[in-house]
Design goal:
By secondary structure, the chain is an alpha/beta fold. The chain is built from nine helices and 16 strands. It folds into two domains: 156 residues, Rossmann fold, CATH 3.40.50; 121 residues, Rossmann fold. Helices cover 32% and strands 26% of the residues. It is globular and about 60 Å long. 38% of the residues are buried. The N terminus is likely disordered.
Amino acid sequence: MRLSRDGVTPSRTGPRSGSLALLAQRRYERRTETATVNDTRIHVFPDSLAFGRRLGRAAHLPTARVALHRFPDGESLVRIQRPAGQHAVVVRSLSNPNAKLIETILSADALRQAGAQRVTLVTPYLPYMRQDAVFSPGEPISQRAVGALLGRDFDAVLTVEAHLHRVFELSEVIPGRARSISAGPAIAAFLARRRRGLLLVGPDEESRPWVQAVAANARVAWVVGEKTRLGDRSVRIHFPAIPTARRTVLLDDIASSGTTLAAAARALRRAGVKTVEAVVVHALLAPGALGRLRAAGVKRITSCDTIPHKTNAIYTADLVAPALAWK
């Protein structure tokens, strides 16, 4: 069989029909690329693939995987798939932020170089929000510094349940369009499936509005404690009279060392509660945290999917999807 110079068998239909077929294919590819470019396209980092794919399904948008290469000197090369889309959405949860922030910022530049007119960051977990003031001389306001960095490179930033204490809106932290989406509806739906005899418990006064709202949506009783922080890994929690309940569920936005939840669980057990569970939005859960919680009597720990973890069972992409069209 005779081959052409490029090793491809000539078409039996002749050179003219082969050329027409190739022309039609090229026109189809151009139309497809133009249609995608004029639409929104989601670009997902490898460590956030599960959330990115759920977001793509919920928003009915195409997703593409961001490629990463690490050089011997520790620098990263970020490569996005073309077409970028006129509105490019980057998905990456920023747990372990010091290793991820630079790569995430580089992705925004890569997308603009590829033709994106608008770049949105969807970061289910947004770090550095807890340092919102100078607590001791010589410290930065990390919340403000990281917010300014993200606001410079992204046209919009969306996150889930940002840890905001002394400010009320994420737009006060990140210049431009920024929005924190509550995980409350997803948590309430999860709790409502097993609400009989359930008491929802917040560890401190700061959690009161959020716990009250989730409890109302799940139609369960609730109570909050009084927390005194004694150090990075030491807190004391006191609860008022605990209503009778078959089981209690502690609710918190972040579990890192597990110290607060463990102290709350011990306080509940001392008050006579037999079954203690915990639900958290962001399962940072540093080494030893799960063991600390189990030792304190927490029977089950469930988290949202904002940080990939084996405790993930509450999914929030459906809450984020409508916000992609937010103006």
